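Regression test attached.
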Amino acid sequence: MATPNQPNRIANKGLIDRRAPLRFTFDGETYHGFEGDTLASALLANGVTLTGRSFKYHRPRGILSAGSEEPNALVELRSGAHREPNTRATMIELYQGLEAQSQNRWPSLKYDLLSINGLLSPVFVAGFYYKTFMWPASFWEKLYEPLIRRAAGLGRAAEAADPDTYEKCSAFCDVLIIGAGPAGLSAALAAGRSGARVILVDENFALGGRLLGDEVKLDGLSGLDWVRQTAAELRTLPEVRVLLRTTLTGAYDSGTFSAIERVADHVPKPAPHTPRQRLWRIVAQRTIVATGATERPIVFGNNDLPGVMLASAVRIYINRFGVTPGRNAVVFTTNDDGARTAIDLHAAGARVAAIVDARPDPSAAVRKIAEATGARLISGVVTDAQGRLAVSGARIRPYNGSAIELPCDLIAVSGGFNPNVQIATHLNGKAKWDNALAAFVPGDVPKGMTVIGAAAGSFALSRCLTEGARWGASAATSTGYPADVPYVPTVADTGYDIVPLWRVKEAKHKAFIDFQNDVTSDDIALAEREGYRSVEHVKRYTTLGMATDQGRIGNVIGLAILAEITGKTISETGSTSARPPYTPVAMGALAGHHRGKYFKPTRLPPSYDWAKEKGAVFVETGLWLRPQYFPVPGESDWLETVNREVKTTREKVGVCDVSTLGKIEVHGNDAATLLDRVYINAFSSLPVGRARYGVMLRDDGLVMDDGTCARFAPDRFFMTTTTANAVKVMQHLEFCHQWLWPALDAQMMSATDQWAQYSVAGPRARDLLAKIVDPPFDISNAAFPYMAIAELTVCSGIKSRLYRLSFSGELAYEIGVPARFGDALMRRLMEAGAEYGAIPYGTEALGVMRIEKGHVGGNEINGTTTAADLGLGKMMSAKKDYIGRVLAGREGLADSKRPSLVGIRPVNRAARLRAGAHFLEKDAAATAANDHGYLTSVAFSPMAGHWIGLGLLQDGPQRHGEIIRAYDPVRGGDTLVEVVAPCFIDTEGVRLRV
Amino acid sequence: MRINCPFCGERSLDEFVIQGDASLTRPDPAAPDAAAAFYTYGYERANVAGAHKELWYHSAGCHAWLVVSRDTRSHEIASVTLAKNVALARAKASTGGV
Amino acid sequence: MSNTKLEPRSALDSAKSASRSHVEIKVLDGISVVWIAARKGQTAALVARVNELYGVSLTLNPRLASSTGGIEFLGIAPDQWLAIAPAKDSHDPASKLAGQLQGLASIADQTDARTLIRVSGAKARDTLSKGLAIDLHPRALPEGAVAVTHAAHIGVILWRPIGSDSFMLACSRSYSDSFWHWLTEAAAEHGLAVS
């Protein structure tokens, strides 16, 4: 009867493909299963019941469930960098060559030495972290923590970076249906037929939910046939999308949901260009939650022993997978549904030793089942499972007699069902207790959401189908797709009739509530005795429900026991909140495409390819990748390169790509007025054909940004911002224009990417550019003086903008051309400049030259400085109002003692300066109270021949000539430095005007 | 959370940047108490639990500034208006409705 | 002095075009992009003037209006549009529009600021949904629709040209390389080959 080598396989049963055998290994041992198996069903088929060791006590554990709630059968899947710990064997689809390892055992699963923790269990009770390892404190790091880390925890994460790829995807629909069991399928049909856009998701790899696990008839069709027929129709509806292997992990505001699709977890290796998993963001107008219900165990002694299994899972293994998890079973139930398991076991050829009905009075249905299956019906409880590594018997106490022991290899348990209300409560909705069902059902649900079927407590199959039909149609109709309520097949419902039993008090052995975190019934009692009575406190103290199953198995039992102990009702005790994600989510799926180099997008300046050819070293500045310096053969380090670039620029001519500066077109009849209000200095007085340096403040009076602004026409300005603040300044201008002064006629558009812009600096800059500009443009100093600007053509007719601006302090220009000509212009500039010794320079030389000139940069405009602090106080117009003016006048900001911009040079000229060093008076102690400011920017100046710096020093401008200390305890620096004016070269500014 | 931009339509939160309370008015810089008024404008904020008017910027979309009426407890949005229209209406009202 | 012309270079010069049956991606060069923003109080006059000149009505919402001369006017923000014009080397649509709309609108050339990419084919929508968080279904985004949004953290303007089931995307030039990387990776699953 049984398949060779798969002793527990039942002939001719299940949705497995017996023509497609698959080989797999578990702990190195080779086994066989079939396509359609999960790892759990295949292990059971092979008679493997011991699958792992528990978290705290290293107790032997087996397979408890057949779904994503599995707390025990957690295994490491795959190997090497692909190794994934804590995967649930019940959710892993079998594939050819699958490799799995048990976890948390040493040296082997059967002989785990750390199971001694079980004997030490008094040490590991609830709150043991807080109590046991308190003293002496020094033992914590050296002894206790390493010991606990070794003993506790589950699988091992892979040591190498995740080699798989992931992606993110957005989807929109009219109706989202979560769960493809009878209720969800019925809803999908109803909504889908209307033409509405429907998304149906299910975490399983097959549609049908419980219809695959239970023997039912719908209008005479088997459950499976009805599922097949429904699936076939759904496939014909073009706007219905079915996502299998997709777990809905979270509900968020405004009808937004997250879901994880396991695209390639069921194959040995993802198909080319296919991600392993895909993170979906689904936006739905209406949502139908048809997530079903999860069976809960009963807390009795040794209820975690392999061979103790949820009753509904037993039926799923028999009917869906053709596997019988035991040959001699005891069924222990609190309701009629659990007892039905005896029928399927019996049909599968197993013996049912007894049905133990915990209700005071077993129902007629159960009596009938017992009779039909030949099982002994016992009104009573199972107090303990017996056995060491697997169930070998059950100790049963009948209500009307003394305890008996029955040999068995399987205990099928049903403590009743918990509706899966998690998704319905993610947005703070509280579930409410239903006494008749002895379960929490959804209370207030978010707008647009309806919970149906077993998830709403409607366990009867007929109700699942009719609710699906009704609410599916109603959801579609409300989104503008009128739908009829479809015909619903007739089914014969079976009863439920629960009398809850949470724990068996006569248990002799450890009795578990939360299997994954090893929380026992005694732990709850202990927590209560120690004063933890709120359900939230008990959760945190005992770690109940804090494992990766999120308490799906144990939470309700735990709080029911707490209610029992405290003498309150379950309603009064309340429940903890469920939060996303519903099941564990791989970090890689959250990152998707955005990892490593692609974590953020990279912006490339127009001369990037050219600079790469030239061997430039690049630096990330914000999102931009800019040439930092251009080494040439023979140069031994970056400083030598940068020194050459600075000297050559100052002596001959250098070219630098400054396209990364923010550029904004500001147009309109009131553009000048708007600029007057955002800059501290005036722009309405700027003549056409000129540029001006400007500083912007925030409304709190601190400097926001600086840059130049050029006027091409009375109503047409071109603003530049720093590279870092381009987006912020644009947002600020829009704010000022749209919100503060909407009556102004002003329009702005970012032009950062439109223009390739190069700084051409140095004594030969004009000679070089004379070869570039088209005649008859006159580039002479007289015709085009410092701060002049012009629109012209270059290189035989290319539209261009020329600005006589200098950041380096040399005779300098910035030349702009449309970005598509940027690469060619850079090449042309270098060719044309060859006879003058032109070189390219990078951001490093740019920085050195600005420090030599005392221009402020990002290190000084750092969000804490005023214009006056930066030596720019004189620019602040007294004739007009501007953003930041009022608060810049505050006592604290107007104080002349504030740290202000100074130049710094080492007394010993050979000494190196370090940015970040703090200023102390020469003989002052190094205390915070004596802190007088700090060095903001430093550079080696090849012109001065020593290190120079800029800093913010208390009362700085009054202290030129003073010797102070630059104190840098972190890097061990303590250097005597001289305070000087913040300009180290051409203090009169002659060179830039020649 | 999703915001229904009056120009672009409904978009996800990550396209927007929040600025804060939209009920504040930038004080008159020429007023004698301007310093105190700007201090209040710059720093003092009510931490509203409930209906709140906020300024949001559609930075990844049309660059419009928006006045969003949002319940800070439920994230439910009652209305979204172009800030420019709110500002123009306010200016009109304060000048006696020209 | 300088007599040899400067050669233009696309930000995706080396890539340009990639296709296979289900997704086709093409970088479009030689198309002019011009920003048009109505001056204060001039929206109606601007709409009338454009209508007179080009025979189309500028839309006041995110949609495009296509002129018989092949210029598309995209509504991208309140009172702002982009004109998309197939350009010949000899003419400069930005300067032409600046002249024609003087006093009614602010004009700036954006031709070089944007890389234009066309994505078409049966799997175009699936490809784009891996980075764009807006509804791309024809019911939500029919022909002629325009959306200013972002894709894979990169700002894009997206539109559906009239009479075609393709998507046009304009991303900022400096982001082109990163955008191309994301787009080709997203499309690879659907059989895209980079040529």
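Expected vs. actual: identical. Chain B is about 20% helix and 35% strand.
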